[in-house]
Amino acid sequence: SEAITYLAGLGFREIYTNSLLPPPIAETVATLLDPEGEHIQTFNANTHHMSALRPSLLPGVFRVAAHNRNHGQKVIRLAEFGHVFHRGKMERESRPSWIDGYVEREAMAMAVAGPAISGSWDREESLSDLFDLKGMFRSLLSYLDVGGITVVPSKAPHPALRTALDVTLDGEVIGVAGQVS
Q1: Max Cα separation, the chain?
Q2: Using CA of residue 78, residue 84, residue 87, residue 92, what is the dihedral sign?
Q3: Could you tell me if 82 and 57 are in contact, meaning their C-beta atoms sit under 8 angstroms apart?
Q4: DSSP strands (E only) in 43-98
Q5: What are the beta bridge partners of residue 78?
Q6: Across residues 55-77, what is the average pLDDT?
Q7: What CA–CA distance (Å, rounded) separates 61 from 102?
Q8: How does pLDDT run across 1-40, given as a tens digit for each residue?
Q9: CB-based contact 6:79 (threshold 8 Å)
Q10: What is the pLDDT confidence band of residue 97, given thresholds at 50, 70 and 90?
Q11: Residue 42 carries which DSSP code?
Q12: 97 within 8 A of 103, measured Cβ to Cβ
């Protein structure tokens, strides 16, 4: 897709992670995203360990980032596009659901860590931060000619984030950018 091609030019690698998660992780993520939300358990799973549908792309992205970091990769730039699933308040969803109370939607996740600028004789190494991610995201939106999306300081606390920005469309929060605690 155009988005991945553009992000590849910024040094991102596209990843594909499993749509199934262990139920405790899916439950934790679902309630972090929506205190009243629930994860979705599958029937007849091959293994109980991987039997819940992912409510977010983040667990997979974090797992890949940790794997890369543990194997000596200093610069982490990952992007994933995929489907996520949850149960929750239907009035917040703009798309109709096949089964009442269940939501499947497309999501995007981007992760950056490590040096944003390599050190050399005339400058110190600079680590990536939330504002580097914000700039890359806004650059992607500009490239795709997507309008109406703003990135503003978050009004609500996010338990897993040290610093958070809300991604909004027409005043409605459609995503979050943050620095992980």
Answers
A1: 60
A2: positive
A3: yes
A4: 52-53, 76-87
A5: 13, 111
A6: 94
A7: 23
A8: 899 999 999 999 999 999 999 999 998 888 877 777 788 8
A9: no
A10: low
A11: P
A12: yes
Q: How many helices and strands (H and E) does the chain possess?
A: 4, 11
Structural tokens at position 173? 């929060």
Compute the distance between CA of residue 122 and CA of residue 108 in angstroms, rounded to an integer. 36
pLDDT tens string 122-150: 888 888 999 999 999 999 999 999 999 99
Crossing angle of the two packed helices 2-9 and 130-143, in degrees rounded to 10:
130
Q: What is the CA radius of gyration of the chain?
A: 17
- Say whether pLDDT at 174 is over 80: yes
Give the residue carrying structure tokens 């199934």: 20
Helix, coil or strand: residue 108? strand
Q: With contact defined as beta carbons under 8 Å apart, do 12 and 81 qualify?
A: no
Q: What six digits make up the tokens of 87? A: 């149960």
